[in-house]
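2024-03-11 09:14:02 DEBUG pipeline.ingest accepted 1 chain
2024-03-11 09:14:02 DEBUG pipeline.ingest length=354
2024-03-11 09:14:03 DEBUG pipeline.predict start
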Amino acid sequence: MTDNRATASQPAASRPTDPGAAEARPAASRPTDPDPAASRPAAAAATAPPARTVPPGSSPWQLARRELRRRPTVRVSLCVVLLFVLMAVGAPWLGALGGWSPNEFDKSAIDPYLAGQPLGSFGGIGSAHWLGVEPVTGRDLFARVVAGAQVSLLIAFAATAIVVAVGTAAGIAAGYFGGRVDAVLSRLMDLTMSFPSLIFMIAMLSVAKDVNRIVLMTAVIGLFGWPGVARVVRGQTLSLKHREYVDAARVAGAGSWRILTRDVLPGVAGPVIAYTTLLIPGMISTEAALSYLGVGVRPPTPSWGQMIAESVAYYETDPVYFVIPSVFLFLAVLAFTLLGDALRDILDPRGGRT
């Protein structure tokens, strides 16, 4: 009786059962469904795209070069930019290859009975004149477009060099020294940016008669373009001048010139290069606009803007004369713009997002 009562008084959970029930009990006590939160990281890791591995020890320029090679649009724009640069450098030889100089008249290529319209279809395009001829004068369009590329890119590159040199020097000085130097240079930037630069360019180029127009246009365009670069460089310098390596160089006794050239300037080189590439298409457009308005380079010196201005009178009777310099100007500006956007995204990602 005692054993039966003790057995009856035991809890139901502690009573011995058959082996099948004993094995079923641990299985029932284990969780049947896995935790969704626990399985989510594994699923995300399985579906996430593989991260690109960066080789150790890669410099920013190597990363930029690798990134540029990865983008097909950048490769195409870089090829177009190099083509225009080679065209500008080899303009005399390319013109001689076509058999005509930019200012040489070919009266046999125009019809004197049709107000000097080019003979043949598509503006006189043929084996003698690869891109046709100008109406009335008969000058070879290929030779003039190539020579115009030399003039336009020369002015754009020279003006950009002035803008970058002056803007970088002013921005580094304002950001590093601060105080009164920063106040004076910042007010000068504001004054220059608020000045009606286009009106001043037109007035100055109209008044200056007996001067070299290419030199004058380069100087005038560069005079009003530096504040944009200076503002970018000033902001970068303000973020760099309190870095640990700059403070270490200052404590070690390095002078301001050494710190600016060895520590600060390399830190702002990336954004400056990206901004420089974006400046060039603006300079090309500015030169073309001034030449279109008649205050740029003087005839017979060819320029894309000047050719477009002259072709407006013939766009109905000879549309090829209007299309060819316009296409060259469009391609040059587009190629430099795409290349500059890519360089800005790579070398100055924060500036590209803002």
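2024-03-11 09:14:41 DEBUG pipeline.report The chain has a mean pLDDT of 80.
2024-03-11 09:14:41 DEBUG pipeline.predict end
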